[in-house]
Design brief:
Layout lengths: L2 E6 L4 E7 L2 E8 L23 E2 L32 E6 L8 E7 L17 H5 L3 E5 L4 H5 L9 H16 L5 E11 L1 H10 L10 E5 L9 H15 L5 H4 L4 H11 L21 H7 L7 E6 L16 H10 L4 H10 L5 H27 L4 E6 L10 H4 L8 H5 L5 H17 L15 E5 L4 E4 L3 H9 L5
Parallel strand pairs: 2-4, 6-7, 6-8, 8-9, 9-10, 10-11, 11-12
Antiparallel strand pairs: 1-2, 2-3, 3-5, 5-7, 12-13
Helix pairs in contact: 5-7, 8-11, 9-10, 9-11, 10-15, 11-15
Length: 478
């Protein structure tokens, strides 16, 4: 039976529960609820309390509905009603000051418009079992988090991430963590968040390492692009892109506006962008210039992020559509031709799926790894190829949670536990030691060592050389 446990934060005591070998503190507020005048404001510190705060249940989520592409999201992502969405969860094996354990701060994905820190796939019990404190955070999504508004601060969701990391710095010692041993991590939009925080000077010093799993960032992400999206919202809906005009709308009304803006061809219009202040330059430019945080980085992707699942009937994908999509993601005509020749034998629908996978995830991640290698920064690169190798499928392996809800629906029956143990051990070693282990060499411009996560994990040198050359040497300026 769970037992009660109390930890003392700088705001007041919090009441959690012991379950097996892990103490769980759920739904701890790190900022005031973003409602009323605070709905589109920078996060504001919470008011202190004196009686123990109930932290035995997950707190409200900013998600009002799960992310849907061609069907329900792979990850079970609960929607929990309530205003206090700026909350976090702590999983620790030793909730006492002085334990000095390494800390992993997890930022969920969901295209920056959905996702939930309350997902059972983000349970931190396996990390706690292995001596790592895991913190999962909620943050503002969609219009509330990322739409440019002339009368509100930009990148409010990014400000939320920084506020949560600041809370970790100030409070994690009470939960057995070491504020000097923080790794920031996430998958998909959460992986993009890790990259964005590395490119955000005011976040530097709040973490000592980063993990980007299938990281996705907006492209292009200049201020003019965000301003154009705001104008497009007003053009399509008649509603001014102003906090004063949006503040009192219901959640459903905001979702309707969001739907008008986030059409399939729009990319990621509600995502972090380079506003020139908080985020000085686009994320790829920061890495290319060497101004991103020079901390150790572990990054990679799955082989078929957005390929159509087996047994489905995807929409037609003529070559012209693939060409247009590749061009919109920055490939010049000769690079488009080279890419299509590389995929000439593939089914048209699979070709389009792989092109999306490469344009959104693999190409940008390869470019980022190349930039890091150029600056001789410690980088470890991976390619997850087991099974369907679809988007999100690697998460329960990294978390060693193959028995979690809906995992086998994504992986099929009997996913390989040894693969989960190996991948999870590498993640733990990286968070603890800033190195995933001797069997995984760094990515350099001489070897380009890449960990292949498959039934038998192994490393190869430059296994994606053809894709790397296309996406890093022949990208056109958008």
């Amino acid at each position: 039976m769970p037992q009660s446990v109390i930890a003392a934060t700088s705001q007041g005591p919090v009441l959690g529960t012991w379950l097996h070998t892990t103490a769980r503190f759920l739904g701890i507020p790190y900022a005031q609820p973003p409602v009323g005048a605070l709905r589109f404001a920078a996060p504001v510190p919470v008011r202190p309390w004196t009686e123990p705060l109930d932290a035995t249940r997950y707190g409200p989520t900013a998600q009002r509905r799960p992310f849907v592409l061609d069907g329900p999201t792979t990850i079970p992502e609960p929607t929990i009603q309530g205003d206090g969405v700026l909350n976090l969860n702590v999983f620790t094996p030793d909730p006492h000051p002085g334990a000095a354990l390494p800390v992993l701060v997890w930022i969920h994905g969901g295209g920056y418009v959905a996702g939930s820190a309350a997902s059972p796939w983000y349970d931190g019990s396996a990390f706690a079992r292995d001596g790592v404190v895991l913190v999962s955070i909620g943050y503002r999504l969609g219009i509330e988090g990322f739409l440019h508004l002339d009368d509100a601060p930009d990148n409010r969701g990014v400000l939320d991430w920084i506020a949560a990391l600041t809370w970790v710095r100030d409070n994690i010692e009470a939960f057995g963590g070491d504020p000097g041993k923080v790794t920031v991590a996430g998958q998909s939009a959460g992986g993009g968040a890790a990259q964005t925080l590395m490119a955000t000077p005011s976040a530097h010093g709040l973490f000592r390492a980063a993990i980007s799993q299938s990281g996705a960032v907006r492209s292009p992400q200049l201020p003019r692009d965000a301003v154009a999206d705001s104008a497009r919202l007003t053009e399509r809906t008649g509603v001014p892109a102003l906090a004063s005009a949006l503040r009192d709308l219901t959640g459903d009304e905001l979702l309707a506006l969001q739907d008008a803006l986030t059409t399939p061809e729009a990319g990621l219009p509600l995502a972090p962008f380079a506003d020139g202040e908080l985020i000085p330059v686009p994320v790829p430019d920061a890495f290319a210039a060497g101004t991103a945080a020079p901390v150790p980085l572990l990054l990679g992707f799955t082989h078929h992020e957005f390929n159509p699942p087996a047994g489905t009937t995807p929409p037609p994908a003529p070559p012209e559509a693939v060409q247009a999509m590749l061009g919109s993601h920055g490939l010049d005509p000769s690079a488009v031709a080279e890419y299509l020749a590389l995929r000439a034998d593939e089914d048209p629908a699979q070709r389009m799926g792989q092109a999306l996978t490469d344009a959104i995830f693999r190409g940008p991640s390869l470019a980022l790894a190349e930039a890091r290698a150029h600056h001789e920064l410690p980088t470890w690169f991976y390619h997850f190829t087991w099974g369907s190798a679809a988007h999100c499928i690697e998460i329960p392996f990294a978390f060693d949670l193959l028995n979690a809800e809906r995992v086998t629906a994504a992986t099929g029956p009997h996913p390989p536990q040894p693969l989960a143990e190996a991948m999870h051990a590498a993640w733990v070693a990286f968070v603890r030691d800033l190195d995933p282990g001797p069997d995984w060499p760094r990515y350099t411009n001489k070897r380009r060592s890449t960990m292949i996560w498959d039934i038998t994990p192994h490393t190869l040198d430059d296994p994606l050389s053809a894709e790397r050359r296309i996406w890093t040497a022949r990208a056109a300026t958008p």
